[in-house]
Amino acid sequence: MKTLFDLRERKNPAAYEAIKDFYSEGVRVFDFEDQAITPCIGCWSCWLRTPGSCIMKDRMSESYWDYVNSDTVILLLDTKQGFINHRGKAFIDRSIPHYHPYIKLVDGEAQHLSRYDKLPEMIFFFDREGVTEGEALRIEDYLYRTAYQFQTAGYLIDDLDNPSLRPLLPRPAKRGTVPVDTASPMNKLIIYNGSPRQQNSNTGLILETLRELLHDRVEIRDLKTRKHWKNWQQKFSEDPHVLFMLPLYVHSMPSHVMDFIEGLAPSKGSLTFFIQSGFPESSQSYYLEAYFEQLTKRLKRVYLGTIIKGGVEGLQARPIQSQQIMIEPMVKIIIELINTGELNKDQLKELGKPVRLGTIGKAFLKTGLINFFWDRQLKANNAYGLKNQRPHQKTRIIIEKE
Ligand SMILES: Cc1cc2nc3c(=O)[nH]c(=O)nc-3n(C[C@H](O)[C@H](O)[C@H](O)COP(=O)(O)O)c2cc1C
Question: How far is the CA of 298 from the centre of ligand 1 (A)?
Answer without folding.
Answer: 26
